[in-house]
Amino acid sequence: MERKQHGTGEVVFNAINYTVFILYTLICVFPFYYLFINTISSNELTGLGLITFYPKGIHLSNYIQVLKLKGLPRAALVSLARTVIGTAATVFASAFLGYLFTKKEMWGRKFWYRFVVITMYFNAGILPWFITMMNLGLTNNFLAYILPYIVQPFYIILIKTYVESIPQSLQESAQLDGAGYFTIFFRIVFPLITPILATVAVFSAVNQWNSFTDTLFLMTDSKYYTLQFVLYRYLNEATALASIIKSSQGPVNMNLQNMQTPTSVRMTVSMIVVTPILLVYPYFQRYFVKGIMIGAVKG
């Protein structure tokens, strides 16, 4: 079997491509690497900005002490709950609405579709939103993390486009056999749109996990605080927190290299918050190209 010969131009082009993408990957990865090595390095050196490319004076006391901070475990559970429940609700609603909007027999289909899409471009602002949420009883209420995110126009558009790429003959044959809309959706359409659902799930999960403004405006009860909101507060109070942690360690256990500083608290809390989504994101990445591109170009 003859090996395909590559011309000089193609070799140069591939070399440039690989170089550019490797550099781009390093640029994207380095901030997380920098954050991590500073959380496990000597806090004295970190505070002086001397940790750049590799860790020095490695220790794990930052994580041990920060994980003991009041409210962090409960905030993690709230964030996990809102991410899982909110993502599931968003994916299901987007899938079903995207499927319905492909049905020409749907009453007022064009009107309702445009009505949903137009909300992408216009909103009333923070104050009307807050008043509406308050009147609906969604202050200090976990449902405030779920209900407003169920209908997402962008996700509906993605799924609608994807469903339209599926041969109509599959649905028509099921209809001839007496299948209703729900049967067709759950048994035929839903399994076929798994790639775009995975894409939507990742987008929604990242959005839910990173959100903290709704907590800032709607929640005064600490039991509803999310991890991102706790991070927001800790970042603003890092100096005070560092003092509290140092005092809780006691004079016997004080070590200049491991002594908590505002910088170490900020970096450690940031790393704890960002790690879960970093672990989940690569797993679903394989679905992105297929999920986004199928149906985007029609012949």
UniProtKB/TrEMBL annotation:
PROSITE patterns, per database record: ABC_TM1
Location in or out of the cell: Cell membrane
Domain ABC transmembrane type-1 intervals: 76-284
Location (main, coarse): membrane
Ranges in coiled-coil conformation: none
UniProt KW keywords: Cell membrane, Membrane, Transmembrane, Transmembrane helix, Transport
GO BP field: transmembrane transport
Gene3D superfamilies on file: MetI-like
Topological type in the membrane: Multi-pass membrane protein
Membrane-spanning parts: 12-36, 75-99, 111-131, 143-163, 184-206, 264-284
GO CC terms, sorted: plasma membrane
Tree of life domain: Bacteria
InterPro entries found in the cross-reference section: MetI-like, MetI-like_sf
Family: Belongs to the binding-protein-dependent transport system permease family.
Protein name: ABC transporter permease protein YtcP
